[in-house]
Give the backbone structure.
Amino acid sequence: MTRQIGPVNPSALARPVGFSHGVEVQGGRVLFLAGQVAHDKDGTIVGKGDLVAQFRQVCENLRTVLTSAGGQLTDVVKLTIYVLDVNEYKSRSKAIGAVYREYFGKHFPAMTLVGVRDLYDASQGCLIEIEGFACLP
């Protein structure tokens, strides 16, 4: 069986914008993505104080994990986004969306945004952390 990934967006629910209500997967391997923050390869925080710059670095880190396992960002089926400030995320959503499209194109996995009081790396300046899983061929 070849791998198939498809969105599940029932008409009985509100039309999703920028995410899918569900993603159905048939076949393939599952890759679990640990929470990624805005560390570069040397462990330095990229974009201190800049949520959009940190979002870009997190996307880059996710892509690195996926490509090292033989996948790509369009293999992602679920993302959970943790932010220290939901209002800041919402106010920067247009810029974040532009970065998202640079990396994911029009691929919209199931997503959850969670506002949190703290992140493990917040004391180093991290504002966002993203985890998820992908279905690889």
